[in-house]
Amino acid sequence: MSVTEHPTDAEFLRRGYACFPAEPQVLDWVAEAQPAAEASLSDPAFDALYACGRTWFVGLDALPNDAVGRVGASAAFGGQAADMARRFLGDWPDLHRAQVSATFPGYPQPREGESDAAFGYRLRRDAAHVDGVLGEGTPKRRYVREPHGFVLGIALNPADPDATPLVAWEGSHKIMQDAFRAAFAGVSAAERDDLDVTDIYVSVRKHCFENCTRVELPLALGETVLLHPFTLHGVAPWRAGEGHRSVAYFRPEVAGGVPAWLGLPG
To answer: What is the CATH number for 219?
Structure first.
């Protein structure tokens, strides 16, 4: 799926994602962010963030940006994707330190402690998930812990299109959001944190696999992607290419928590 010059808000709300071309403002930001991201890959302080036999650097909070996205001498983060996110959310939130997700040839290998079934899912279904719906305990049960306002990714380096591209299931955000709205209907504020959404999440995820088109989004250097927070997405296995693919992700939580998350445009 190639980027389009000016994706529309309507296209974003229909597909659940929008991809944007590299633009000078973003490329200037990448010029500052990329060296910082590369440094994190070899920083002993972040060594525990490697997973899947060191074929994936998870990189949570690894980019040293400030609340407006400045890294080093860069300006605040901006561009078409940020503008669309602002319109979608009705605001531009303070940003957390971005995730630096880097994948390498051979991805995926089994993650430490990962069952055969979970690794099979990673291979066959790109480890597809909705961000913020987290698994806890043994056996794993899922809860909404991080209701994000959006997911915004920025490609930090050139990579082969077959080198672990981002994958999204087109239109899945509508199905997922409707399912979560139904799951939380009538649930009190005191009970939200303890609402086990495992069964409905697994069922609706399977429905999305069967009814939504899987789309690969292999971002080139400086290109950006905006994902609706309910879009089912993942990362394909490494099929070709050398070096690594590095993407910075901003995933700020929506002000207002779960009710505001459920009420986002869909």
So the answer is: 2.60.120
